[in-house]
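Bumping with the actual sequence this time:
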Amino acid sequence: MANKIYPLKPSYTTSPTISPPANVFNRIISRRLKAFCCSRLSRFVLLSLVLLITFLVSLALGSVAIPPSEVMTVLLGGTATKPAWQEIILTFRLPRSLTALAAGSALAISGLQLQALFRNALAGPSVLGINAGASLGAALVVLTGGGIGWWGQLSVVGAASGGAAIAMLLVLLMARQVRSSLALLIFGLMLGYVTTALVTILLHFSRLEQTLAYLNWTFGSFNGVTWQQMPILLSVVTMGLVIAQLTCKPLNLLLLGEEQAISLGLSVTVVRCYLIFSASLLAGSITAFCGPIAFLGVAVPHLGRSLFRTQDHRILVPVVAFLGGWLALVADSIAQVPGNQTVLPLNAVMALLGAPVLIWLMLKQGRQQI
């Protein structure tokens, strides 16, 4: 029987469609561009640009509006059209904006470290009693009539730094004696309660003008740091940020739990002391120079984790530092009430600005887990 020959179908005989090289190139570029836009690097670049723009806007806004072109001219070493504008930028607004950047970054990193150390989402710079110690030092000067004039402002900074340092030393000594982070957290809270009680007693026996002066200090402000004090503040904050960057790997191990971290060869006691020293240095220096700034240390770490979707502290440390500086600049710009002579309390603006954002992020994460 002869073999039957089956003809091929026309669809099999047609040659496959080959895309032109230009279309293939465009597809590759679009895929890579889309991947880059979704990457963490692109988000960090975008965050850097937003921070830079916010910094320039903070120099332009205020009771006296200054054109952005004049701001750039002054920053680049030129002379503004009006001498008053140059005086306002260099003497008042530039130190204030630099202080806001340093304070926001320092408090945000301090909160990030303490949340990882205690594995508590509500941990912040105030939980170790550092802010309360600085407040007690400031209260001893202000409520005894020593916070008046230029020397009085310097004495307030020195007393607040001393109070924060004493509280830090007590916490470090306690950290060497106990192994449980929960016990250390409770000790910090009790230390804060004791110092707050002492401040309340001092307020009870002080005069009205002294009480008002201390109350004004507790509102928080970035306006009090001068160019002479700026090198001290920036050097202390830089030291704390360097320590935070060097402890990123131990922080990642602590997320696994203390027992797991010890089994992996981590000396939890030594790391704990480094973290407490760094967090206390950052929070204590900012409280001494700017007053007790609330909210940043608790909220910004959550904002960084939500936006970048990571728990890796090698990524979170720079991200949280930038976010903290940006939020501090935004809050300070709003507190200045552009076009008006009124200045709002910084802590009130900070809470009103950031609390809705944090609540929205928590609700968003809660829906994703359901």
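The tokens above came from a reply further down the thread. The longest helix spans residues 83-118.
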